[in-house]
Amino acid sequence: MNNADVLIVGGGIVGLGTALALAPRASVAVVEAEARVAEHQTGHNSGVIHSGLYYKPGSAKARNCAAGRELMYRFCEENGIPHERCGKLVVATSEAELPALEEITRRGTANGLVGLERLSPEQMREIEPHVRGVAGLRVRETGIVNYRAVSEVYAGRIAEAGGTVNTTARFLSCAREANGIVAETTQGTFRAKLLVNCAGLHSDRVARLCGVDPGVKIVPFRGEYYELKPSAEHLCRHLIYPVPDPRLPFLGVHFTRMIGGGVECGPNAVLAFKREGYRFRDASLRDLFEYATYGGFWRMIRKFWLTGAYEMYRSLSRRAFWHALRELIPDVGFHDIVPAGAGVRAQAVGPDGKLVDDFFIRQAERMIHVLNAPSPAATASLAIGQSIAEMALKELS
Questions:
Q1: Distance from the CA of 349 to the CA of which of 63, 74, 77, 397 falls in 20 to 30 A?
Q2: What angle do CA 46, 47, 53 make, to 5 degrees?
Q3: Rounded to an integer, what distance in angstroms lies between the CA atom of residue 309 and that of residue 32?
Q4: Do 328 and 299 share a structural domain?
Q5: Strand partners of residue 171
Q6: CA angle at residue 127 from 123 to 133, to 5 degrees?
């Protein structure tokens, strides 16, 4: 029997950030299904330290990103984690995108960003000589880091504070008892006063195993990347983003210089046929059955079928992906890009078919369930962790 004040399900960056915030004040045990931490969403993202530009002012995303960004920069400095506050350029490629560019500028200002700079085409080319567009926005607070490296340092700090991070410990079940909960995992039984669910791609399933209706269904979207060949890396000096579609919680295909070297291009956003569906051929009958029997999934499809069809076409066609990249940098050649990795985003979808845009946390007796924590959750992980820790400590008091 393993005993702790708080049991955290999920060893991604949000679960670890929560454990790190709790460890000095309560005994903590993290259970992670995989053989190492940060194996899924955390370890497969583009490594951007987000500024907080896009999010609705006052939302949980906006608040946590603004605070978490600076906490992340400070944590990296204090722990010797390679990172860079390199800034990014958001590019409007047509006059039709100017109102949306104006709106994200307004949001960024409301969210406390300083030094936002509206640029003419000539000014953009002084920063990124190969970019083409009608206007741009320079965002100086954006940076890059390796979040797997960050997560491994989190895990080390948790252990130093007396907590445990248990890998290959898949969560199986949970039962309430008089003074807390008892959870069964593939690494044995854990008894705790409180459970925190940070299971990401499986967060809705964990909630149901705990007897809690999550109110949403996790639908995985795969983001596929290309990367520039070394001979073409000079085409991108910083980070280059399009103006995003305001209807969707995705930022569109963009260029990201990586902290370890190289330039990623992407991602797109296609429906994955499995919760850990990193390849097109990865499929799960269980996951597909869950989609097919969830009304919210079909309502989502009706709303976004045209966008989804285009994303799928771009997934299957390298040439289509290349054309999307050329909207930002026309000088990118077809043979300048090569396939790279992919990530899977755990997107919560409501019964009405809406893609849940903000962070979504549901509390129950002796439980806290984090049911939607997509980007910028990695950036905001220390701030989110502190918020969840405060909720947990109130439950424990």
A1: 63
A2: 90
A3: 35
A4: yes
A5: 185
A6: 55
Q: Which residues contact 216 (CB under 8 A, 6 or more apart)?
A: 204, 296, 348, 349, 350, 351, 356, 360, 371, 372
Q: Structurally, how many domains does the chain consist of? A: 3
Could you tell me if residue 262 is left (phi over 0), alpha (psi between -120 and 50 degrees) or otherwise beta? left
Question: How far is residue 187's CA from residue 32's CA, in Å, rounded to a whole number?
Answer: 10
The range of the structural domain enclosing residue 116 comes to 88-140
222/325 same-domain check: yes
Domain shared by 118 and 134, yes or no? yes
- Residue-wise DSSP of 30-62: EE-SSSSSS-STGGGS--EE--S-SSPTTSHHH
Residue 250: predicted pLDDT: 74
Residue 73 within a domain: no
Where residue 80 falls (left for φ over 0; alpha for ψ -120 to 50; beta otherwise) is left
At 325 the three-state DSSP class reads: helix
What distance in Å separates the CA atoms of residue 115 and residue 111, rounded to the nearest whole number? 12
Cis peptide before 376 (omega within 30 of 0): yes
Q: Are residues 28 and 172 in the same domain?
A: yes
Alpha-carbon span 397 to 381, nearest angstrom: 24
φ, ψ of residue 259 to 5 degrees: the values are -65, -25
Residue 53 lies in a domain: no
Give the distance, in angstroms, between the CA of residue 16 and the centroid of all CA atoms in the same chain: 14
Where a domain ends, among 140, 156, 171? 140
Alpha-carbon distances, residue 115 vs 6, 58, 87, 129, 131 (angstroms): 41, 20, 11, 21, 21
Do both 200 and 162 map to the same domain?
yes
143 membership: H or E segment, kind and range: strand 143-145
* Cα R_g (the chain), whole angstroms: 21
Residues in the chain, overall count: 397
Say if residue 38 is in the same domain as residue 168. yes
pTM above 0.85, yes or no: yes
Q: Which residues of the chain fall below pLDDT 50?
A: none
For the record, the structure tokens of 236 come out as 């991108």
Report pLDDT digits (tens) over 74-130: 999 999 999 999 999 999 999 999 999 999 999 999 999 998 999 999 999 999 999
Closest listed residue to residue 258, CA positions, set 236, 231, 241: 236
